[in-house]
């Protein structure tokens, strides 16, 4: 179980994993980054405990450690208990959620083949560079029975701190992987029996409900960046272009909202 240790000194070197998080949680391929997975708040920390990511340590106020209760038995790591003021000094900003956990990440977490294996519905993303949109997509994918997420060109890091927070930790449990070649690697999905559907508002696309009524056994739903949407190359690489019907004068939705509608319409029945 976690060993709780009280610390009042903001300069204690044992807190270095949590220091200046506005820069310390950058992706490993950026200068100065350490590549940690950082969970904020009791709900997300609990999900980190149950994920494959090895926890290093925790930092929080006493009340939040009490809220974790028996979940602290799941990890054999130090838990540093401090005041809200000292925690803010260490982190670099005031943290309303009152607790953080830091974990190492495998590189890469999964392969494309591992995510595809056994999947029925997949989300395929292109150019989703906004961390909050990405986190929301993962949260929706978890809620609506999507089996995994595949990342094409231009996507941000799902394990960036803000994405983990916005996803409510679901990015830690939904399998994901990054394509090595885009959009060429979409052929891997087709070879495994997936029908690739590109979501786009253009006029020659078919209704999402028409796709649903055709009930493909396996479907990969492609979504692009909010604003520009999918590139022409990605749409051309799909099997079908699909739209969400909307009234005249409205031609787009937030990408996470569009994803939620598409996931709901194409998922298998949930018990």
Automatic annotation (TrEMBL):
Q: Which UniProt keywords apply?
A: Methyltransferase, Transferase
Q: What is this protein called?
A: rRNA methyltransferase
Q: What Pfam families does the record tag this protein with?
A: SpoU_methylase (PF00588)
Domain of life of the source: Bacteria
Which terms under GO biological process does the entry name? methylation; RNA processing
UniProt keyword annotation of Methyltransferase present: yes
Q: Which GO terms describe its molecular function?
A: RNA binding; RNA methyltransferase activity
Check the record and name the InterPro entries matching this protein.
Alpha/beta_knot_MTases, Ribosomal_eL30-like_sf, rRNA_Methyltransferase, SpoU_MeTrfase, tRNA_m1G_MTases_N
Q: Where is the tRNA/rRNA methyltransferase SpoU type domain?
A: 122-264
